[in-house]
Write a structure and sequence with these properties.
This protein is an alpha/beta fold. Helix content is about 25%, strand content about 20%. The chain has one domain: 3-Layer(aba) Sandwich (Rossmann fold). A five-stranded parallel β-sheet has the order 2-1-5-6-7, covered by helices on one side. Strands 3-4 form a two-stranded antiparallel ribbon. The radius of gyration is 15 Å and the shape is globular. It binds flavin mononucleotide.
Length: about 160
């Protein structure tokens, strides 16, 4: 059986909850990408063009620092979860992807959002881990059940 890891980043806990449920549902290990420093409410104010989130969104080349960068050694299948920020992942996800070797590994994305689904497929992230085998992901609601998450994970296995 392949060894599975669920990795996530979460600013306000929604993606964390879905990631925890997914890991439990498929009996995978769980690890967090931790931004350095952690996000404050002010940092993620999308109405403020000078907020940390707005500034990273404006600069495609930015690779913001992370204080926890989960290892993928020994895992075959990695699920990567993130909140959709302007239809993509926080750039810390790219920092993480570009710090590890995904040769021979499968990455499947999942995302949470207020309503958007664009960006959940993960295609925009492929160039940060070109050696991975990428599987298109999907968006989940904040209250996605373990049963729903397991059915999805089984469907792509
Ligand atoms: C900076 C920022 C940008 C966002 N952009 C979008 C968006 O484009 N579309 C959307 O549906 N939700 C958007 N959201 C809402 C988040 O995707 C949503 O609240 C998500 O579930 C938060 O996950 P978290 O609690 O794991 O951080 C945005 C939130 C933030 C903070």
């Amino acid at each position: 059986m392949s060894k599975q890891l669920v990795v996530y980043i979460s600013a306000t806990g929604t993606t964390r909850r879905v990631a925890q449920n997914l890991a439990k549902a498929i009996d995978a290990d769980l690890a967090e990408i931790v931004p350095a420093p952690p996000f404050t409410a002010q940092d993620i104010d999308w109405t403020d063009p000078t907020s940390r989130a707005s500034r990273q969104h404006a600069d495609r080349a930015m690779r913001p620092p992370i204080s926890a960068s989960p290892s993928v050694d020994g895992y075959d299948e990695i699920f990567v979860g993130y909140p959709l920020w302007w239809d993509t992942a926080p750039r810390e996800v790219r920092t993480w992807l570009e710090s590890h070797d995904f040769t021979g590994k499968t990455i499947t994305t999942f995302a949470t959002s207020s309503s958007s689904t664009r960006g959940a497929l993960g295609e925009q992230l492929h160039d940060s881990a070109p050696d991975a085998h990428w599987v298109n992901g999907r968006r989940f609601a904040a209250n996605a059940s373990e049963a729903e998450l397991k059915a999805w994970a089984d469907s792509i296995a």
